[in-house]
Amino acid sequence: MPYHTFKCSECIPERAMHAVIKGPGEDLTSCLPLGYLNTIPGTISERGCAFCGAKHVIGAPMKDVIHLCHGPVGCTYDTWHTKRYISDNNNFQLKYAWATDMKEKHVVFGAEKLLKQNIIDCFKAFPHIKRMSIYQTCTSALIGDDINAVAQKVMAEMPDVDIFVCNAPGFGGPSQSGGHHKINIAWVDQKVGTFEPEITSKYVINYVGDYNIQGDVEIMVDYFRRMGIQVLSTFTGNGSYDDLRGMHLAHLNVLECARSSEYICNELRKRYGIPRLDIDGFGFEPLSVSLMKVAMFFGLEKEAKVIIDEETARWKPELDWYAKRLKGKKVCLWPGGSKLWHWAHVIEEEMGVKVVSVYSKFGHQGDFEKGVARCSEGALAIDDPNELEGLEAMEMLKPDIILTGVRPGEVAKKARIPYLNIHAYHNGPYKGFEGWVRLARDLYNAIYSPIHQLSGVDISKDEIPTDTGFLTRRLISDMNISKDETTPSSERPYTGEYDIVSKLRGKTYQSSPIQLGSQQQLDGTV
């Protein structure tokens, strides 16, 4: 097996089986990292917890809902406000965060009374909102609060409200993916089949596994509607609570993110006989194939072809323009789950870049199977990397850009490597034909940004030292000199500032202009 051991992880031998380099002629029988296992102690993992996966990723994008976190206020930081899951109701759920704010006394004496009062207070504060989701945390789970019982009491007292309970504490799985599973099953168990939405078309689907990052859902729903298909519900981006209660009436579940939402599609198939069709909204060719697959299910091939031809004619020339300029640029594809394999091949084929590494913090074995199979030879695949491993990979691979989230992305910036936020997007949406061109544009802008390239200019050895204009450093050096006036200057330890400060003592300190670098340096960098 072509396992790769990072130098920073040599003291943790178990990590060796979580990274591989795909060599010539190797396939999944010999080149597959371990995935979705319990975090190895001491690795300083950056994974999210199951609570994060349930609330942050899947639950809270529902737009007309109060999303209440039953736990300490610190858990409420992990809301979906750090992502751009927008909605068409003036982004109600983006403007507020709700928490019961459990304290030590509640851990000792219980927090069910606190929870009930918080539920009532929330509905009073937002009288136009009649739906609520309550999310269990580690703290409320460990003390045994019966959230379901409290919710039932409130609904009995307030008949016009409806409450969903998600029992997915942080310890409920190896990573956030454990929370994905729990909320999928909980929604089917508690809410599906409890509401009858209006059916207005012969062709009805649930669009599942899209969270409307900067409007992704709106792009895809527009394609379906142009084909004559009714989108009964979207799970859960820009999704309505009551529409999602009526998922059982759809004719087909169209699944986008198989990592986060395949569970609910499988349950709907078992319980209601609704078939599942997996699609891909990223890239011209995968999207075209996906739209045609959905069309063939309903016999709407002509309608789909019109859309595909129109959109391709409009946007393909722009994509080709960027592809010529991105050809050969090295990319580390470090996403969450499904983008690992949704993007691994298509960005190479349609944008000309070279994927030199893929990783996932919570992807399952199946995600790595598909991702590694679609990668080129020489690609480094990593499961659950930490910051040090990420830095070491950057040094080894020397990519031109990283496609990842904010946390590893900001680390990449410190290493003077640009990144694109593909969790919340820089300038999305990225789905659809226009969205794919938008991603190519963001790649182009990031790689060729002259401002970012200036960060690589070394000005530490310029003719004029760059720190001579900073008052604080001068004052510190001045104080050091005054304490040691009797020592000849030739015998003092050199700090690089003594001579400058000596000349400036007794004068007014003024900032000096900062020299960015020689013209030769700039010409060689920009």
TrEMBL record:
Residues 49-447 form the Nitrogenase/oxidoreductase component domain. PROSITE patterns: NITROGENASE_1_2. Keywords: ATP-binding, Iron, Iron-sulfur, Metal-binding, Molybdenum, Nitrogen fixation, Nucleotide-binding, Oxidoreductase. The gene is anfD. InterPro entries: Nase/OxRdtase_comp1 (IPR000510), Nase_asu (IPR005974), Nase_comp1_asu (IPR010143), Nase_comp1_CS (IPR000318), Nase_Fe-Fe_asu (IPR011290). It holds the Pfam family Oxidored_nitro. It comes from the Archaea. Tetramer of two alpha and two beta chains. Forms complex with the iron protein (nitrogenase component 2). Its cofactor is [7Fe-Mo-9S-C-homocitryl] cluster; [8Fe-7S] cluster. This molybdenum-iron protein is part of the nitrogenase complex that catalyzes the key enzymatic reactions in nitrogen fixation. It catalyses: N2 + 8 reduced [2Fe-2S]-[ferredoxin] + 16 ATP + 16 H2O = H2 + 8 oxidized [2Fe-2S]-[ferredoxin] + 2 NH4(+) + 16 ADP + 16 phosphate + 6 H(+). The keyword Transport does not apply. Its EC number is 1.18.6.1. One of its GO terms (molecular function) is nitrogenase activity. This is Nitrogenase protein alpha chain. It comes from Methanosarcina baikalica.
